[in-house]
């Protein structure tokens, strides 16, 4: 894989360059991620803050998570596409909501674990060979 790879929000106002492979990629089945993605789960690539560079204007929104941590979302103010999430009390990593469509090597966004499967939709089948957690590990 040749880095950096590039991505953008839906309208292209926010762009980013991912300079290194994600530390981990998770599929989250919690109800909040179902709302976020309007699908059965969302894919989250966890990357070090220094491994990604953004261009464009972002807006933020925060909520308290079930763990008691604050979860802040950064999104494009024009198209509303969420670009990443982070905990403002720990900004060493960003939890990016990267959509693997359009990348030549989409396998870097293949989840290694499925989390919050206790809230998984009943008709979703989980793949074999990946770690599964009822809640947040």
UniProtKB/TrEMBL annotation:
- This protein is called GFA family protein
What species is given as this protein's source? Vibrio gallaecicus
Give the record's keywords alphabetically: Lyase, Metal-binding, Zinc
Report the sequence similarity comment from the record. Answer: Belongs to the Gfa family.
Q: Which InterPro entries match?
A: CENP-V/GFA, Mss4-like_sf
Task: List the PROSITE patterns hit by this protein, alphabetically.
Answer: CENP_V_GFA
Q: Which domain of life is it from?
A: Bacteria
Residue span(s) of domain CENP-V/GFA: 5-110
